[in-house]
Fold this sequence. Notes:
Layout: H1 3-17, H2 30-50
Helix pairs in contact: 1-2
Amino acid sequence: MAITDQMKQIKELCDELGIDPHIYANVKEHGRLIFRLSEFCVFKKGDLKAGRIAPPDPKDFMGDKK
């Protein structure tokens, strides 16, 4: 999947969750982020929209594993 397709999917998931997709503009692990956002859509959307949990942190998807 091309990066532009992945970013389009990230934007669609963010729109569904009410998250600003621009916070993920510089992430490197697109597939991992898509998986995490999809998980939020299925299992945690209500908690996220109610403010009980925070959206995934962009820093967790930068590919800087130590």
